[in-house]
Amino acid sequence: xxxxxxxxxxxxxxxxxxxxxxxxxxxxxxxxxxxxxxxxxxxxxxxxxxxxxxxxxxxxxxxxxxxxxxxxxxxxxxxxxxxxxxxxxxxxxxxxxx
Amino acid sequence: xxxxxxxxxxxxxxxxxxxxxxxxxxxxxxxxxxxxxxxxxxxxxxxxxxxxxxxxxxxxxxxxxxxxxxxxxxxxxxxxxxxxxxxxxxxxxxxxxxxxxxxxxxxxxxxxxxxxxxxxxxxxxxxxxxxxxxxxxxxxxxxxxxxxxxxxxxxxxxxxxxxxxxxxxxxxxxxxxxxxxxxxxxxxxxxxxxxxxxxxxxxxxxxxxxxxxxxxxxxxxxxxxxxxxxxxxxxxxxxxxxxxxxxxxxxxx
Lengths: 98, 253
Known about the structure:
A: 98 residues, alpha+beta, Ubiquitin-like (UB roll), 3 strands, 17% helix, B: 253 residues, mainly alpha, Ferritin
């Protein structure tokens, strides 16, 4: 019998939106063979207790991610330039999300 | 059969079908081919048990003999159960289980659509709530029927075999029970006459897309679920499901 160590289906990342207008947040990942199966599985695994009103599923291989080596060049330069941070503005009353 | 008795009997038909179907699907817990499907099947099972709880509670209240949903579930014998036969059949392979959810799901979808217009407020509320659940069950199962039917040689063969075997039991879904007749006559529920046509239309669309053949029963049809005439399988599932309450009556968590 032929052996195949990786019998698992394709990996997908799941993003859920808690309520209309809110940002989608990464909820976790799952296995599925195509987008419809990924969407149904995402509903069952990550949204079965009213956690979401919308779901995105994205093949994990489609995500381009920064690596730990990028950390210095990518993120350090922002730290010492206070003028880049919008710290001097007041958030108007009643705004819940920016 | 009085109108009140008919209403109780009809609620048992629906509640017992959801209960036994749900109990069967729970047997997949920890055994499904992938984790995601394990969760999906147990989700469906929990939806069904929730439905059973709601409608059996109402059956008990209507009957007015001090039987709540637990009493009705755990302290009746096989011949008192009114579920359709497909619900009690063993799960078989994955294709057979999906075939069961698929055929029963579309039956429940069409039945609950009709009952959403019932004059009985409790039946109406039950149907409206449960309809949303079964529409999802239909989508999940239809997706698998298409995937397996239009899949590999083996998956196609197994899916077709499952549908052919299940075809023996689908006329049982549409056998008109005495309680259904009375409730329609009394105008408590709308006519169920179009149920089979609408169901056939729904399942044919999926079966065609799955490149499968519409199943033809090649043996004597099995009927009688709604009248309490069950297959040998119901007694076994009840002995499993009811054991604790029978051995230790009124045991609580």
